[in-house]
Amino acid sequence: MAEMNDRTREVFRRVVESYLESGDPVGSRTLTRSMTEKVSAATIRNVMQDLEYLGLLNSPHVSAGRIPTQLGLRMFVDGLLEMGDLTADDRAKIEGTLGTKENDVGSLLDRVGSALSGATSGASLVLAPKHEAPIRHIDFVALGPDRALVVLVFADGHVENRVFAPPMGQTPSSMREAANFLNAIAAGKTLTELRDGIAREIAIHRRELDDLASQLVESGLATWAAEGEAHARLIVRGRANLLGDATQAEDLERVRQLFDDLERKRDIVEFLELTEGGQGVRIFIGSENKLFSLSGSSLVVSPYMNADRKIIGAVGVIGPTRLNYGRIVPIVDYTAQLVGRLLSDRE
């Protein structure tokens, strides 16, 4: 960006801003009416050709104007994007959602997702916080030949239970044996700490556990493994917004594919890792995030923190690559900060 002269930088900025506003290619004659200095359409065409050669612009048709490439959008976001201020209306929508005294965090985050989707006209993602209190008790309950329930009671009184498929041939005694083994090593440990040490403990105590009980321990605790946790903690709202924004059959198919991936929670663990890599709002354009590579979508996401300044979740907005980044980034940032403060106050 620093190597561009003023005219080239202005042409590039105006092409991107016009595209983000309208979604249409921008022609040289259109730009002659808005440029700071008076220049001919031929001069602007030459500049646009140079930008196309650099990979920053692209021409969808031979006779059409230019649109920014993914690389061009990334350069614009990193170097030229001007952030707007959060409007009073957007602030009121978010604060109104979070102003309830309700104690159910799940319901609160569900409303956050709906508010974000409504305020941005995109689809929202909300990653709920992990529960990391020490474990008090673990139990397995048989529900049938191929279904069992694992129950976790945490030291702070929180209870979680999940249904899973246990190894074939389980007996009441093997379930008791597995639960007793876990309870003997789980005291005072968080689920993450227990999961990290479970394989090692099973290897050491293999002779004390028969194969069925060992398999039950591993398959039962896998219910809370990283992939499973992320699946259960993702809230998606606003599918209709993206479908409504798609104008052509191929666009609709890309959006449907995106939501199929989200519903199967494919690659959400990677999404978590990306948000936990640093503070502040992050923008992923198109294929920069594997989850959105086929849909032509962008993701604006920000982590939120607890009272100890530890990242515990994230909020984000999905939309087409021509998102109004300058407006949406402040909304996502403010929402993440507000959720973090609210959860910290509850702690």
UniProtKB/TrEMBL annotation:
Sequence ranges assigned to domain Heat-inducible transcription repressor HrcA C-terminal in this UniProt record: 108-329
Keywords noted in UniProt: Repressor, Stress response, Transcription, Transcription regulation
GO function terms (MF aspect): DNA binding
GO biological process: negative regulation of DNA-templated transcription
InterPro entries reported in the protein's UniProt record: GAF-like_dom_sf, HrcA, HrcA_C, WH-like_DNA-bd_sf, WH_DNA-bd_sf, WHTH_transcript_rep_HrcA_IDD
Pfam family, one: HrcA
Role played: Negative regulator of class I heat shock genes (grpE-dnaK-dnaJ and groELS operons). Prevents heat-shock induction of these operons.
Family per similarity comment: Belongs to the HrcA family.
Name assigned to this protein: Heat-inducible transcription repressor HrcA
Species of the source: Palleronia aestuarii
Gene that produces this protein: hrcA
